Prior knowledge:
This protein is an alpha/beta fold. Helices cover 34% and strands 17% of the residues. Helix 1 crosses helix 3 (102-113).
Amino acid sequence: MHNWMWGGVLSTPAASLLIPHVGGVGGFILTASHNPGAPKGDFSIQLNIASDGQASETVTNAIYQYNLTIARYLTLDAKPKVELDRPSQQQLGDMHIEIIDPLSHYVSVMERLFDFERIRALLSNGEFRMCFDALHAITGPYAREIFERHLGAPPGTVLHGIPLERFCRQAPGPQSPGCCRIASAFQRC
């Protein structure tokens, strides 16, 4: 069994893109973004399959029914602790773990989907300005990598780009306080 991770967190789109990239059949994604579930409504478990994204209800219902038959599970005392903050190869019992850099793979996919050269020209023409408020979600490092490092947007274009637990208690959406912040930031631009 292989596990691929980075810093312990991935954006849901990056995780979905990595599943077929690493030859996986599927992957469980614990998401805290737009799929509230769990007793406190703060996360959910999503199963994505390599062929077409989110698994069908038929597949997830079959997994649920199988889970009802589980009588026991085993644990492993993880020593040494798995380091998640840099790309590496590690072993945990019989399981091989590869810690990857998901930003580079995600950026390469975005470069194939979008014309980075034209976007870079727009961002550097002196007439176009933008702000991207990541709301302290996991999108921050991806936005900073793409907009500021690859497309040449000025440093500071990405606001609130450091992921924080619970997104500073802000949910993205048109009624959120973040929209007022963005509007006032544009007025200052």
